[in-house]
Amino acid sequence: MKTLLLLISLTSLLMSQQYTFLVDKYNKAIDLESQIISKIAHLSIKKDDIKLYIPKATKIEKKIYSKHFTLVNNCKKADFVYVKKDFDFSSKCKHSKALFFTNNYRKLLSDKSFIGAFFWSKSRPNIVFIKNRLGNKKIKLPNSYNKFVEDFN
Q1: Cα-based angle 141, 134, 132 (whole degrees, multiple of 5)
Q2: What is the pTM of this model?
Q3: What single DSSP character describes residue 68?
């Protein structure tokens, strides 16, 4: 009897693994990130339908971000570009009028194309905008965002 129960249990366990591909993976961090980037993009651009380009986006990122944006496949069609991975955007996005945002603080400081960054530090989300770059792009954020604006000369 014990052998029969063990055999049934093992069989059902092995069979259940065949159907796990039907369940979509859900990533809570990407969902929170997409909501924050959506808020930032809508405050910066002030449009209802914003076209977003994320270079080298994963399938999960595309699925989650598509709830908030119209995703496009290059910089030229985009209103907002969120660079998360290494990407040579200086040559590929040379003539784009999109706003550039990154998830890397060092990249934000070293490249003047980016108006701001959203990154995780110590398991907490951080948002940073560069004051003079916002001014150059004529972006006016609400006063509640002043705590995220840094003044670098």
Answers
A1: 130
A2: 0.78
A3: T
Structure confidence by residue, pLDDT tens digits, 55-70: 989 999 999 999 999 9
CATH of the domain at 78: 3.40.50.2300
Count of structural domains, the chain:
1
Would 13 be classed as within a structural domain? Answer: no
Edge to edge, the sheet with strand 99-102 lists 70-71, 51-53, 80-83, 99-102, 114-121, 124-130, 149-150
Residue with token string 């709830």: 67
Residue 22 lies in a domain: no
71 DSSP β-pair partners: 52
Residue 8 covered by a domain:
no
- Report pLDDT digits (tens) over 29-83: 888 899 999 999 999 998 889 999 999 899 999 999 999 999 999 888 999 999 9
Task: List the end-to-end C-alpha distance of the chain, in Å, as a whole number.
Answer: 78
